[in-house]
């Protein structure tokens, strides 16, 4: 309690970031030998030039581990200091235990709470929002938040409409309770009525049917419909975030968007009247890594020295569900 008797305000501040991409790179040129596509089509429609694909036996948990070790090092935090691990993924290693539990054990952080959040491509923003609430409520002081995926495991490599889009990767941040500044607000939304526009219809409880076993577990997407919905939803959540914080769109220093399609990113930047020099773009290097994409972009921007302490960052994401959300933070 403060001297006045009021509970002091606590923010969740990013103390360190980390990311990891598997070694194996597949270029647009490589894919044009497998399906009827071209570097020209993929680059002009999506901005993607290449993606990383996990090696046989390399799992979401492995990618999460490497990204987390880097984030802990950057934060100067030992795994044993963690109060909580929240991991966004839609491609967990196993049905259970959660990938967060597997990660906790491997990091040597045994004892703290650990759970996964499944919000498809919005997984990291959802996980960050949950972690922020734990810190604000005083239930945790040091939290590891991860977005990690091996989406290529459920890609149909014969479907040119989807196989060119996705890649594997992970990013992580360590949040610490801070009296001064950090995450200012988070905003989460979902619309479960649009599930068939972007989904993987195979599941545990609905049962694995014979024809699905043969067809394999794969992503189905009506790309142009998802595109339109994503642009509208992201416009709306950006407006909501600015209004909630009493900010003008010109107050934002950096936009750190979900990396699905450069044209969607440019549409959000236009809405913010933001020059592309203030937008972090990494989609060309790794395609859509789902939950991994926002923390991968954040880590690259931090490590390259572009994002500096004290700057105002707007993170946003959109994905299957549909789910979408944002986080505004003072880095
Ligand atoms: O992270 C979750 C959120 N996901 C997204 O945000 C993805 C949103 N959607 C998109 O990014 C875009 O819709 C795509 C990149 C998936 C597709 O771009 P588009 O400009 O919407 O193209 P389209 O689906 O309307 O297809 C246009 C044409 C079609 O041919 P016709 O019917 O015009 O003859 C497709 O068959 O492009 C064809 N096409 C391709 N051609 C060459 C589709 N995929 C390919 C391909 N190479 N890989």
Could you explain the architecture of this structure?
By secondary structure, the chain is α/β, with parallel strands linked by helices. It has two domains: 11-179, 3-Layer(aba) Sandwich (Peroxisomal Thiolase, Chain A, domain 1); 184-330, Thiolase/Chalcone synthase (Peroxisomal Thiolase, Chain A, domain 1, 3-Layer(aba) Sandwich), CATH 3.40.47. Helix content is 33%, strand content 24%. It is built from eleven helices and 13 strands. Strands 1-7-6-4-5 form a five-stranded mixed beta sheet, with helices on both faces. Strands 8-13-12-11 form a four-stranded mixed beta sheet, sandwiched between helices. A two-stranded antiparallel sheet has the order 2-3. Helix 3 packs across helix 4 and helix 8 runs parallel beside helix 9 (262-271). The longest helix is centred in the C-terminal third of the chain and has 22 residues, at 223-244. Bound molecules: oxa(dethia)-CoA. Oxa(dethia)-CoA binds next to helix 2, helix 6, helix 8 and strand 12. Residues 37, 41-42, 45-46, 121, 160-161, 164, 223-224, 226-227, 230, 260-261, 264, 288, 318-319 line the site of oxa(dethia)-CoA.
């Amino acid at each position: 309690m403060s001297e006045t008797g009021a509970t002091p305000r606590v923010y969740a501040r990013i103390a360190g970031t980390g990311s990891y991409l598997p070694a194996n790179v597949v270029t647009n040129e490589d894919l044009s030998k497998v399906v009827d596509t071209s570097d020209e089509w993929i680059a002009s429609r999506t901005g993607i030039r290449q993606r990383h694909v996990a090696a046989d036996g390399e799992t979401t948990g492995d990618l999460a581990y490497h990204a987390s070790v880097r984030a802990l090092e950057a934060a100067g935090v030992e795994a044993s200091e963690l109060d909580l691990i929240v991991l966004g993924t839609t491609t967990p290693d196993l049905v259970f235990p959660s990938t967060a539990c597997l990660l906790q054990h491997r990091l040597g952080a045994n004892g703290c709470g650990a759970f996964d959040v499944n919000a498809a491509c919005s997984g990291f923003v959802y996980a960050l929002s949950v972690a922020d609430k734990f810190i604000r409520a005083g239930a945790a002081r040091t939290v590891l938040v991860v977005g990690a995926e091996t989406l290529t495991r459920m890609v149909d490599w014969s479907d040119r409409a989807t196989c060119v889009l996705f890649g594997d990767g992970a990013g992580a941040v360590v949040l610490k309770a801070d009296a001064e500044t950090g995450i200012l607000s988070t905003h989460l939304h979902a619309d479960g009525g649009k599930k068939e526009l972007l989904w993987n219809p195979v599941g545990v409880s609905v049962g694995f049917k014979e024809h699905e076993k043969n067809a394999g577990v794969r992503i189905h997407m009506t790309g142009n419909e998802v595109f339109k919905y994503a642009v509208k939803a992201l416009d709306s959540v950006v407006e909501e975030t600015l209004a909630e914080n009493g900010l003008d769109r010109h107050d934002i220093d950096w936009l750190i968007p979900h990396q699905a399609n450069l044209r969607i990113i440019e549409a959000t930047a236009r809405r913010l009247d933001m020059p592309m020099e203030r937008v972090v773009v990494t989609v060309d290097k790794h395609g859509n890594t789902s939950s991994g994409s926002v923390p991968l972009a954040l880590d690259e921007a931090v490590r390259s020295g572009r994002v500096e302490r004290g700057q105002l960052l707007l993170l946003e994401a959109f994905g299957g569900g549909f789910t979408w959300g944002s986080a505004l933070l003072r880095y």
